[in-house]
Specification:
It is built from 14 helices and no strands. By secondary structure, the protein is mainly alpha-helical.
Amino acid sequence: MGEVQIQFDPSSLILINIILAVMMFGVSLDLRAEDFRRILREPKAPVIGLLAQFLLLPALTCLACWALRVEPQLALGMMLVAACPGGSFSNIMTWMARGNVAVSVSMTAVSSLAASVLTPLNFTFYAWLNPHTRALLTEISIQPLSLLLMVLLVLGVPLLLGMMVGRRFPTLTLKVEKPLRIFALLVMLVFVGLAFSRNFEQFLQHFHLFFWLVVAHNALALLVGYGSARLARLPVADRRAITLEVGIQNSALGLVIIFTFFPQASGMLLIAAFWGCWHLVSGLSLAWLWSRRTALPAPAQEVTP
């Protein structure tokens, strides 16, 4: 796929970085130190979920890409998505699925903060470990420290600032949190939509290559989350939370990384962009199914989209 030319304006990098930072700021307004302390008091479910998120999913993704000899750019896109933290929509989906929202929120808080280090580390490690992607990674000559700094600036710093603002100005937070998150999401969707429209021909031409990869990869992520929770004999509500937390990835972060460091890697872009659409379909479908099949006690904490 190296010959496919993706139309992208480098000046848009500043905009997409700001969008992601605003999204993380909006998500973290509702986070509290209690979300982190909860893991210390009841560590089993969040720890199982985080191990599935940052250890099992990236490793299995790398193994699958190697075994199936996935085209290097597509494989890099899959490994990058697998290295990203859980997406913010996992919380509302867990609530819809009558899962344990407290576990979901705790995992989101810790994974978003840990991703500042673990996302660059996992991506570069597994991309180097896979012999099919190692050459491409070397050819691109990515600087791990630059990647680490970028993720820290668009993920870690806004998250900490959002928590500080949410704690200091709780009344203001209640008023602006939901509109801010919706606004940032809509702007991101418009941005991705414009990118797709400018490259619609390439999208259709290679749809058959990345569609099933994304569907299978997302199914793997959901199964890794559910299987880990099931093997740990966690309650049903915890299983649902972990399944959705691992299966819903922050693909927006993946897009930012691609546009910054891999602007000509069309395969990576197609994987991450379609992941961002498909995991909403699969996650909402699973949440709807679970909400109808079993009536669990209502979660103690509700979240707003």
